[in-house]
Amino acid sequence: MTRTRKPGISRRSTLALMGAGAMNVAAPWVARAQAKTIKIGMPTILSGRVAQLGTSSRNAVMLEVDKVNAAGGLAGRQIEMVIRDSKGQPQEAARVARELVNTDGCEWLIDGEASSGSFAVHEVARDLGVLCVHTCSEASSLTADPKQHIPNAFRCVRQGIHDSIVGGSYAASIAKAKGLKKWATCSPDYAYGRDTTGEFTLYLKRFAPDVEVISESWPKLFQPDYTEVVTKILQAKPQALYSCLWGGDLTSYIDQANIYAMFSQMEVFAVNMADYTALTVVKNLPKGIHSGNRYIKTFPATPENAAWGDAYKAKYNEYPTNWSWQNATAVMFLSEAAKKANSTDGKKIAEVLKGLTIKCPFGADGTVTMRADDHTLVGYAIGWGTTIPQEPYVPEVKAGDWKAIFELEAEWKKSKGYT
Amino acid sequence: MTELEAGRAERLAPASGSAAFQRYRDVLIALIAFAVLACLPLLSGSKALLDFVIRCSAYGLFATSLNLLVGYTGLTSFGHGMFFGLGAYSFGLIMQRLGVPIPVAFVATLAITAVIAAAIGAICVRLKEIYFAFVTLAFQMLIHSMILSWASFTGGDQGLRGGIPRPVFLGIDLANHVHLYVASCALLILGLLAMRQIAQSPFGYTLRMIRDNAARASFLGIDVWRAKLTVFVLAALFASMGGMVMALFVSGAYPEFAYWTISGEGIFINMLGGVSTFLGPMVGTVLLLLLNDTVTRFTEYHGIVLGVVILFFALGLRKGLLDFVAEWFAHRRDAVEGR
């Protein structure tokens, strides 16, 4: 008898193949269910003008998450980060945050949004009741204003008001020592620029009452040409200049002002200078610009901070930014809270986070605290120093006094009607 | 249905019998669409799907209202987003500061939008083509700058903070996700139906005549300026409704809502979906949001992907998707009839 049909795959091997296929498809799910990973969602800005900061936030988070996972995870659960781009648009930030929780099953949110986006994510956290840590928004009202307060949101970020208090007192001491009475300001024309400059001059005048602001310039955000601003300031002949320009705006401003030798004619106080994104980009960094610390691996001058900066550089081949340390600190807080609560339940974590103090390379005294009454970060390293053109860029930083910060901050809150 | 098809349908329709059906056909379609949308939460528990439809409502109302200007009247507005922002801010501010019931805030917002749109439109509609486009863009930037600099009132670049209160009215609780979803769908369907009525009314055909030849319309005794101003204000009202839906969705209002990029997205949606069919912008909205939501899940280089899609539509199809489909059907039918 002849075979009418050529032998193909036998029934047995077909079954075996199907079984193997099913295993292949199912294996990751089975593995995931067994490992009980915890998903943390993170909307941040990965495209557009500030993409560099968003990317540095993602880098820092991953650096810390890898450490936590290697040490056994959060209460025994490995962390899986789901990080998405919001394009810096609040409606996208809200959408992405909701999607991360509702569709991707993220249990917590790390909010890597700046300005309006952070308020949009804050509303999502209010609506969904999910644990949320803001890591990039410096707007003081996010936590200072009691209307914003919700039990499940925390802010692990430096604050504009803290910077202004420390900057004002530092600048006043220099002003007194050098007799700088005539001041000019030059800051970007939007809420951050106006508020920060207003608060800085408020505290400068408080500590050095005979200071007078003789010229104000408000260039547009992302303005390419600063010639008119520079010449206006030079004509006013101030003894000192304050600026809270940042990032690309600050570097182009310095490059353009260098042509007019501005930095040899007055003392310059640029709060956002001491950040590697600015320090390493300026063509000829003038000596002696006064700046607040954003992130710099030499302040606080501890081996832990230097090691962290070097580890980041080794992994990503660039220095961390201000957003990096804040995001890293957030992961440290969450990890410590999960350890204390021995749980990953958002409500329990929120309870533990209140008033929690942790060891941290970016703390003024080696520790930072999540203040209980307004859920915001305090005790981080904050100070001012002067630049030199090469590494370490800002060799000596004078640390701010947290006791004074707390006193003046309480006063400021009262004046704003927050307390 | 395209205008071409509509005309053909009228020719082919039996004289009387289905006249009543023809008249109420749009209402019937609207009712069915609303019923289908309203049943969606029963069929799928996906909150993301509901979020998607809510956003489609906001952008759909906005884009379709823009098409009243671009497609029907030939007024290419680059500043239509200002009314989207205006709606979101007016509604948010009224709810936060006055604490009135939601329907009152809704009507008040429409009234504010109408007044401002009438003032801006009175200046803009005198101009044509690129001049009209640029003056509308200028007004948009003016409103955006006002929102940014009037920080004590609008919250500046940080937007309206603290959430928008949503007191319960008539048993509807907009803080509840499903209620918000159904309300958004209702607004979308009602808005689309109203815009369809405008487009199919004698006034709508006047607009088409103005688009095709304004001088001829003028010689026929039509007050072109008044007709243009009327449609400008009407379109602003629907854009403002879209803004209110968005404000409710994000529970806030942000200056980005009034920025030129929103107007740009509106134009892009119209290009994607097509301007010669009534539902073109709605199709464009769904396409753009789907594209946006899927592409941003996988890459932060979404700009490249969206750019390629724009190029495909602009250089490849040379028209919007629904235009393309409608033409394809028309060709096919012609071929069948010709045989």
Describe the overall structure.
The complex is a heterodimer of chains A (419) and B (339). Chain A has 419 residues and is an alpha/beta fold. Chain A folds into 2 domains: 202 residues, Response regulator (Rossmann fold, 3-Layer(aba) Sandwich), CATH 3.40.50; 173 residues, Rossmann fold (3-Layer(aba) Sandwich), CATH 3.40.50. Chain A is built from 14 helices and 16 strands. In chain A, the strands form 4 sheets. In chain A, strands 2-1-3-4-5 form a 5-stranded parallel beta sheet, with helices on both faces. A 4-stranded parallel beta sheet of chain A has the order 7-6-8-9. In chain A, strands 10-11-15-16 form a 4-stranded mixed beta sheet. In chain A, strand 3, helix 4 and strand 4 form a beta-alpha-beta unit. Chain A is globular, with a radius of gyration of 25 Å. The relative contact order of chain A is 0.12. Chain B has a domain of 219 residues. Chain B is mainly alpha-helical and 339 residues long. At the A-B interface, helix 3, helix 4 and helix 7 of A face helix 3, helix 11 and helix 13 of B.
Produce the secondary structure layout:
The complex is a heterodimer of chains A (419) and B (339).
Chain A: H1 11-35, E1 38-44, H2 51-70, E2 79-85, H3 90-102, E3 108-111, H4 115-128, E4 131-134, H5 141-144, E5 153-155, H6 160-178, E6 182-186, H7 191-207, E7 212-217, H8 227-236, E8 240-243, H9 247-259, E9 267-270, E10 274-275, H10 276-279, E11 290-295, H11 303-316, H12 322-341, H13 346-353, E12 357-359, E13 367-371, E14 376-378, E15 383-386, E16 397-399, H14 402-415
Parallel strand pairs in A: 1-2, 1-3, 3-4, 4-5, 6-7, 6-8, 8-9, 10-11
Antiparallel strand pairs in A: 11-15, 12-13, 13-14, 15-16
Helix pairs in contact in A: 2-12, 3-4, 6-7, 6-14, 12-13
Chain B: H1 3-12, H2 19-43, H3 47-73, H4 81-98, H5 102-124, H6 129-149, H7 151-154, H8 177-200, H9 202-212, H10 214-219, H11 224-250, H12 260-273, H13 280-298, H14 302-317, H15 321-338
Helix pairs in contact in B: 2-8, 3-8, 3-11, 3-12, 3-13, 4-5, 4-6, 4-11, 5-11, 8-9, 8-11, 9-11, 12-13
